[in-house]
Design a protein that fits this description.
Elements: H1 3-7, H2 9-14, H3 17-31, H4 36-42, E1 47-56, E2 62-73, E3 79-86, H5 91-107, E4 114-120, H6 128-141, E5 151-155, H7 161-175, H8 199-214, E6 223-227, H9 231-242, E7 246-252, E8 255-258, H10 265-275, E9 285-287, H11 289-293, E10 299-302, E11 321-323, H12 332-340, E12 344-346, H13 348-351, H14 354-368, H15 374-399, H16 403-422
Parallel strand pairs: 3-4, 3-5, 6-7, 6-10, 10-11, 11-12
Antiparallel strand pairs: 1-2, 2-4, 7-8, 8-9
Helix pairs in contact: 3-5, 3-16, 5-16, 6-7, 8-9, 8-14, 8-15, 14-15, 15-16
The protein binds nicotinamide-adenine-dinucleotide.
Length: 426
């Protein structure tokens, strides 16, 4: 892409995740004929917290990092959502991700609102000690705003089980007793849930299983292309492979590997783990991440990052089913093109909701102090994902809208109902 294309204001606008989210929210709200008072309340976040986090670096000097926590909506329960560490964290992105969490929790009908956090930092350049001090002080700054009944963070980009354990410990030190349910995505030994690590990929598998039935496909004759090979893409591809699907392409940040006869996914993931890249994997063709999206396939699962399918490349997407493992992989402008080309979309707020569903199970288990077997977790996850898929598809058919609009309408309708029943304290 040329510099002029990168700097084009239309492109910048199309790729602003908050604008994409709002465009879909507005369309769904309009179709629902949402009451103007509810619209006014629901279109904005409930609370945005900005913190400046001093951290003593290994050099002995203090560095101050900027962090956010956006609590988008509490109508259905405590806010819920991840915390990401990255140099390009932006409040607009955090706002969009927090709102997506509200709609996602409502689509799968778990009793949470939406939240998201972020700290502007470069975790690759920080030591473990610096990351621990950053995490603890960020958690301490948020202490009055988070908690099992208020807001329950989880891992996101560049945060993990260890980060959650530090937050849980910091919160517990201030509370003077152990509070496991303040975060999810913890190590299983510290109140985490069995099956949480695989939950997003497994949820993706469950909704793909439902979607292929609509096309009279079965796993062995379903060609799947997966972008990304991390928690969602890697685990999703492995589970699809185990279920008999033909995964023909998969990628990492450097590019993709392709074999129309199918890839040995466990071998590719082992290679990725050993060499930290898929690039030298044998007996495959090499494609770029953008070429990968345009491959001939039945299911395309973008599981890497935002804005991968845009107005400029949407017309060249050849899949029958788009299963959005990532958050916001498709821009609002691209939606119309995919719809006109008859692509069946399993929207992100449904397709990747397996993660938050098992986070909900983790929160429930922590509060009970009683932990379920992995089979129980997976069976309950299947129940939720299959029911939610059918809810969205039925809603789309009944209202004659595409599945993304249906998922937003269903979610907004549920949040609006609860807001109306509670009444607006104004
Ligand atoms: P991850 O860091 O484990 O993996 C990300 C993968 O994407 C890696 O393979 C990486 O190489 C690749 N990647 C990163 N940037 C890329 C780029 N610019 N182009 C191509 N590939 C790129 O992250 P994850 O947890 O798998 O999350 C992936 C997406 O799924 C994100 O959008 C995240 O918000 C969303 N998501 C994750 C979960 C979860 O439980 N992990 C739940 C819901 C949604």
């Amino acid at each position: 892409m040329t510099k002029a294309m990168m700097d084009d204001p239309r492109r910048i606008r199309e790729e602003n995740p908050f604008e994409s989210m709002m465009e879909r929210f507005d369309r769904a709200a309009q179709l629902l004929n949402l009451n103007p008072d509810l619209y006014a309340v629901m279109r904005v976040p409930s609370r945005e917290i900005k913190v400046y986090v001093p951290v003593r670096m290994d050099s002995g000097r203090i560095e101050v990092f900027e962090g956010f926590r956006v609590q988008h909506n509490f109508a259905r329960g405590p806010a819920k959502g991840g915390i990401r560490y990255a140099p390009d964290v932006h409040i607009d992105e955090v706002r969009a991700l927090a709102a997506w969490m509200t709609w996602k929790c409502a689509v799968v009908n778990v009793p949470f609102g939406g939240g998201k956090g972020g700290v502007i930092c470069d975790p690759m350049q920080m030591s473990i000690g610096e990351l621990e001090r950053l995490t603890r002080r960020y958690a301490a700054e948020l202490i009055d705003f988070i908690g099992p009944e208020r807001d329950v963070p989880a891992p996101d980009m560049n945060t993990n089980e260890q980060t959650m354990a530090w937050i849980m410990d910091t919160f517990s030190m201030h509370a003077r007793h152990t509070v496991t349910a303040v975060v999810t995505g913890k190590p299983v030994e510290l109140g985490g849930s069995r099956g949480r690590r695989e939950a997003t990929g497994r949820g993706l598998l469950f909704v793909i299983n439902e979607a292929i039935k609509r096309f009279k496909l079965s796993p062995p004759n379903t060609r799947v292309v997966v972008q990304g090979s991390g928690n969602v893409g890697g685990i999703g591809a492995r589970l699809l492979h185990e279920a008999g699907y033909k995964v023909v392409a998969i990628s990492d940040i450097f590019g993709g590997i392709y074999n129309p006869d199918g890839i040995d996914i466990p071998a590719a993931l082992a290679h990725l783990q050993q060499t930290r890249s898929l690039q030298e994997f044998p007996n495959v063709e090499h494609v770029s991440n953008s070429e990968l999206l345009e491959l001939e396939c039945d299911v395309l699962a973008p599981c890497a990052t935002e804005n991968q399918i845009r107005s400029e490349n949407a017309g060249r997407i050849k899949c029958r089913i788009l299963a959005e493992g990532a958050n916001g992989p498709t821009t609002a402008n691209a939606d119309k093109i995919l719809h006109n080309n008859g692509v069946f979309v399993i929207p992100d707020i449904l397709a990747n909701a397996g993660g938050v569903t098992v986070s909900y199970f983790e929160w429930v288990q922590d509060r009970m102090g009683y932990f379920w077997k992995e089979e129980v977790v997976n069976e309950r996850l299947s129940d939720v994902m299959v029911a939610s898929f059918n809810d969205v598809v039925k809603y789309a058919e009944n209202h004659n809208v595409d599945t993304r609009t249906a998922a937003y309408m269903l979610a907004i309708d549920r949040v609006a109902y609860d807001t109306r029943m509670r009444g607006i304290y104004a």
